[in-house]
Amino acid sequence: MKAKSLAQEVNRRRTFAIISHPDAGKTTITEKLLLYGGAIREAGSVKARKSSHHATSDWMEIEKQRGISVTSSIMQFEYEGYCVNILDTPGHQDFSEDTYRTLCAADAAVMLIDGAKGVEPQTIKLFHVCRMRGIPIFTFINKMDRASLSPFELLDQLEKVLNIDSFPINWPIGTDGNFKGVYNRQLKQVQRFIADGTHGSKQVNIALTDLNDPELTALIGADHQQQISDEIELLDIAGEDFEMERVLQGELTPVFFGSAITNFGVEPFLQDFLKMAPPPGAKKVNSGSETIQPTDEEFSAFVFKIQANMNPGHRDRMAFIRICSGHFKKGLEVTNNRDNKLIRLTQPQTFMAQDHRILEEAYAGDIIGIFDPGVLRIGDSLYTGDNSIEFGDIPRFSPEHFAKVQPKNSLKRKQFNKGMEQLAQEGAIQLYKRPDAGTESYMVGVVGVLQFDVLEHRLNNEYKVDIILQPENYRFARWISFKDRQLMHGEAPDDLNLTSTTLTVMDRHDLPVLLFESQWAMDWALERNEGLILSDINT
Ligand code: G4P
Predict the structure, then answer these.
(1) How far apart are CA 27 and CA 260, in angstroms?
(2) So where are the chain's domains?
(3) Ligand 1 lined by 89 (C-beta under 6 Å)
(4) Which residue among 18, 259, 270, 447 is the one 20 to 30 A from 143 at the CA level?
């Protein structure tokens, strides 16, 4: 086979994350995509792995089983000439700031929604990160084999809750628990749903029929058939126009209805998605003064996630790197922009099917895992060539759980401080200090409670410090700025009108942050302090 050019390799890559609320069916649909991509032969294997994670509530057990493998983080497969990279965004108890950071490495997102539940809280949070990045968002409304909300209600939620316009690519028939299939608006045909009793463990072919097919009339009744025709006419007249440009800007989401568990609509979705989703694009670097193209010959990449190994036998960590330009070969020597040091990228990993493998080559758009002896940090920019490249920081996201942390034994304060600083630097936690207080106790913020367990375990394991962790009632952290006033670096405003439970703290970069216990307290601050701007992401 003739080797493909760099441009050909880049153009056939699609790198995306699936965002959803727990239980919407992310594991199920991921597995079906792997099935169609030939990465697994029969559905059931990913699921089995997942249930083994969740069967135990002991987090250490979970980590032990997972080891440092990248299997749950990146999945790569080939499909009809495309090279597909799926980034896992952990949900459930694995939800952490990493889940958000992973979205910084994706070129598109698939938003999976449970048709009976509509838009749910975790989806909203993840959606906002995608929105901020301006990446295209494709919506798959799942579980249509069961009774669901009306499709109009679901589209209304996308518009009202997420503020995104939608264009249904297909339209469900029978949403009252009597699912008959979908009408494909492009093909102008009905794709019939026929449950084959295999629970979707194998690939399915879809039977096509005309909307006026008498067989369909017999199945759903003439009234129902008329209703579907009317709904589709209404969509054609009153719905959004399909504009690819708006899809690529993340302003219009193509919507697909289907059922992952029965495989219904998964392959047509994959085919349309791959056609519409963009290949890796240009990226602004060096504070926006330069742009690199994915097809540039020189390699460039950034670190978006570091997974520490919880196994005391190994101190290695895995750094996840998103390649932004060029061609990567095993053993490539790159410069780390942060300290200008050379580092050799050995033992790069990717995941294919059930196991990971050493990667020989990769291209812009790909994600690789590198064993890191502790030299890499989240946000590091790596490159080859003489022209230094800096991608800019990975944003920090508002924590949702807070605790005061101090060492059990005050003689261990030095190790404790060192450990806390390093873990914060790695992005494992966010650290805050009272502007008027010393470092007697730190305030720690995390996105997912699992991060507290990681903190406790790693301080004990790597720094030999036991800690006392006292949960706090704060629920929101917001970075502060003002419309008409510039704060000095390190300055905490002391003239704000706040509720008695709202706390002003400084983050690790000496930026002022307000900690709130409730939405009410946050509204209070906004109403009583003119020009105050609160942001939940620090870019
Ligand atoms: P998650 O990763 O997003 O958390 O969801 P997951 O795939 O684990 O799916 C959550 C539950 O929803 C599972 O049921 C799964 O079988 C079911 N599910 C997924 N897709 C569909 C669908 O298209 N239709 C229907 N009816 N159900 C679907 P469970 O009872 O929690 O697990 P299991 O016993 O099926 O393994």
Answers:
(1) 9
(2) 14-71+108-276, 283-383, 396-538
(3) no
(4) 447
